[in-house]
Design a protein that fits this description.
The complex is a heterodimer of chains A (about 325) and B (about 325).
Chain A: H1 2-11, H2 27-33, H3 35-58, E1 64-65, H4 71-74, E2 76-77, H5 81-87, H6 91-123, H7 127-138, H8 145-155, H9 162-171, H10 181-209, H11 213-221, H12 226-251, H13 258-264, H14 270-273, H15 276-286, H16 290-317
Antiparallel strand pairs in A: 1-2
Helix pairs in contact in A: 5-16, 6-10, 7-10, 10-12, 12-16, 15-16
Chain B: H1 14-20, H2 23-30, H3 33-64, H4 68-73, H5 86-92, H6 95-126, H7 134-146, H8 151-160, H9 168-171, H10 178-189, H11 193-201, H12 206-217, H13 219-235, H14 238-243, H15 252-261, H16 279-310
Helix pairs in contact in B: 3-16, 5-16, 6-10, 6-13, 6-15, 11-12, 13-16, 15-16
Classes of the chains: A mainly alpha (about 325), B mainly alpha (about 325).
């Protein structure tokens, strides 16, 4: 039996094909056979245990009154107390509102802009120009939020920044754009668009490159214009990609991005700037309410999990490809 | 199980047919008057978008070489009237800046090596389909991608391990990114098995196979990830904010934040003791914090599209 399998394996030249199924080793034989590979994995496994699994075990403090002195095990159970406190806290609707508005701006403004930019880039036939523009629009993705926020601070510096003096000229008043609560959301959106729109096109451009070109030729013969070709051929062709990106975006709705929001928030715009991520930081790290802030973070993570599986389920319901 | 990128086909199937199509079709397809007008508008628009991506940075670059007076009186310029390197001279003479810069360089180098080594050492065994326990480990890895315990439990673990106010706190908690682990694993998986088999027949040890067969074959992919890791650590603001209390240990991003936030109102109490630095210094610090990333960018750009899509071959 083994001999036959071996002959078959030797006789089948399978370049680049998935590895030929080997004779299954059972139990200990397999462990012994792979012992060095298993040893090799130990640091990685230790990493996942320490920094990914242990915190999940530690998240039980959301249901306890965690006192550092008593440790996680020794602290007393309080059940859903911290969750109830959070959901009945007047902060909760404000945080939810702020988070959802920022998420909606990103989903309904920044996300479609990404698709539009990818479509426009796809229409450029001069490949030098296309590549140059791509090179330029990807750059902001690699800058840190600290740099982006600092750039914003310099561009909108009171009275002297290029954008603040331009806007002041239009309105006729001098505004401190960085501290004005009304300007918080527009600035966040502007930063998000500047930093991530270009980078976001990569995945759509890859999908666009695989659209069947013969369909376009057939459409031209049928007299379809550029807009009709985009609407009836290009967009349907990249629909699976759009849906996958939408699912991923939906799962991220509550993740507003800690660094950006934290760096942009200040004493004057806190009413609109506070979101779940920064709230966890302020209550947990700064005020030391570990259990309460863990409960907040946990609620957020679970809602995110439900959202991503929910949209995935919906996508499948409507006969689209999901990601799971 | 599949990574999110799986749905993007890597091989454009239309390539062959496009080449075979008659040139007249192409001609007919675009050279209408409306088509040409659209092309012109599109090109102009895209060039504008490309410039907008760069313009804020160019302004700050120009400002970093300008005098204090010019920055505060001229609203916008891309070329300083009076060229000066005063801003750079003053940040270079600041101990806090030099310390932050050196710290960040060292942490970035060590952190990148640690991330790369741990990820490769874990990805290689996982690329073996019948490794015992592979399914369980992969399930855990994927689970950590969609669910994380959050900021506070992770902070408490770091604290428990005694890593607060240690540079390891900037490196170890994010030593393996599950997403890149899966991409690298998938890449290893599609390398020809024959090479590894023959190395094994020649008596090579698993670690030797990884070092002398697998890693040389994966150099472009690993280089891409190394650059991504390096940029990630260089840019990281949250880890030092959470884990470093000692101001003398601050990284460049923390220093940058302190310098640029000091004049504008800030909820954070950092930098309150210092007088607001002159505008020119802010410009120069932004540039110094950005330049290393821009230097790495051409190398990143050469590979990232390929590196990012490479994992999409199978899940």
């Amino acid at each position: 039996m083994t001999a036959v399998v071996d002959v078959e394996q030797a006789g089948t030249p399978a370049p680049a094909a998935p590895p030929a199924p080997r004779r299954p080793h059972r139990g200990w034989a397999r462990v012994v056979r792979y012992r060095w590979l298993l040893v090799m994995m130990l640091p990685g496994i230790l990493y996942f245990l320490l920094f990914r699994i242990w915190p999940m075990w530690g998240a039980q403090i959301a249901f306890k009154n965690y006192v550092p002195f008593l440790g996680i095990q020794g602290s007393e159970w309080v059940g859903w107390h911290h969750f109830q406190e959070f959901f009945s806290n007047p902060d909760f609707p404000r945080l939810l509102g702020n988070t959802l508005i920022l998420a909606a701006l990103s989903l309904f403004v920044a996300f479609p802009l990404t698709i539009v930019l990818a479509l426009l880039l796809n229409e450029v036939r001069l490949s030098v120009l296309k590549r140059t523009v791509q090179t330029l629009v990807y750059i902001p993705h690699f800058l840190s939020w600290t740099v982006v926020v600092s750039l914003t601070a310099l561009l909108f510096a009171i009275g002297t920044g290029p954008l603040s003096s331009f806007l002041d000229g239009l309105t006729g008043t001098e505004t401190n754009y960085l501290a004005d609560p009304d300007w918080f959301r527009p600035l966040i959106l502007l930063q998000t668009i500047w930093k991530s729109t270009g980078w976001g096109t990569i995945i759509f451009l890859a999908a666009l490159a695989s659209v069947d070109q013969e369909q376009y030729e057939a459409a031209v013969i049928d007299g379809a214009g550029r807009w009709q070709r985009t609407w009836h051929i290009t967009l349907p062709a990249i629909r699976p990609t759009i849906i996958v990106m939408l699912i991923l975006q939906t799962g991220e709705i509550l993740n507003t991005g800690f660094e950006q929001i934290y760096l942009m928030s200040n004493a004057l715009n806190r009413t609109v700037a506070d979101v779940f991520d920064t709230y966890v930081y302020f209550t947990g790290i700064q005020q030391g309410a570990y259990s309460y802030s863990t409960a907040v973070g946990l609620s957020k993570a679970i809602v995110g999990l439900v959202l991503i599986f929910g949209t995935n389920w919906l996508a499948k319901r409507f006969n689209q490809q999901g990601i799971f | 199980m599949a990574a999110p990128l799986t749905t993007v086909p890597t091989v454009p199937p239309g390539r062959a047919s496009r080449r075979a199509s008659r040139p007249s079709t192409q001609h007919q397809r675009f050279n209408t008057r409306a088509g040409r007008a659209f092309d012109v508008v599109n090109v102009v628009l895209l060039v504008a978008v490309g410039l907008l991506a760069l313009l804020p940075f160019l302004y700050v670059l120009a400002g970093s070489f300008a005098t204090e007076l010019e920055i505060t009186t001229r609203p916008f310029f891309l070329w300083p009237r009076d060229f000066t390197t005063d801003s750079y001279a003053s940040i270079l003479s600041s101990d806090a800046f030099v310390r932050a810069f050196v710290t960040t360089v060292v942490v970035t180098l060590v952190g990148t090596l640690v991330q790369l080594a741990l990820t490769a050492l874990m990805a290689y065994p996982l690329s073996k389909v019948d490794l015992p326990g592979r399914r369980t480990i992969m399930t855990v890895v994927v689970f950590t991608m969609v669910f994380s315990a959050g900021m506070i439990p992770t902070f408490l673990v770091v604290k428990q391990l005694g890593l607060l106010d240690s540079y390891w706190a900037l490196i170890l908690p994010m030593a393996i990114n599950p997403f890149s682990l899966i991409i690298i694993k998938n890449f290893f998986q599609q390398l020809p098995q024959e090479l590894e088999e023959s190395a094994k027949i020649d008596g090579a040890h698993e670690l030797q196979i990884l070092r002398h067969v697998v890693i040389p074959l994966s150099k472009p992919v690993l280089a891409t990830f190394a650059l991504f890791y390096a940029v990630g650590i260089w840019n990281d603001y949250m880890s030092p904010l959470l884990y470093l209390n000692d101001q003398d240990m601050w990284t460049l991003q923390m220093f940058l934040r302190q310098v640029t936030a000091s004049a504008s109102l800030s909820a954070q109490d950092m930098g309150a003791e210092l007088p607001p630095p002159a505008q020119g210094i802010k410009f120069a610090v932004v540039i110094v914090a950005t330049i290393p990333v821009l230097l790495a960018y051409p190398f990143l750009q050469k590979h990232f599209a390929k590196g990012m899509l490479i994992g999409s071959v199978k899940g």
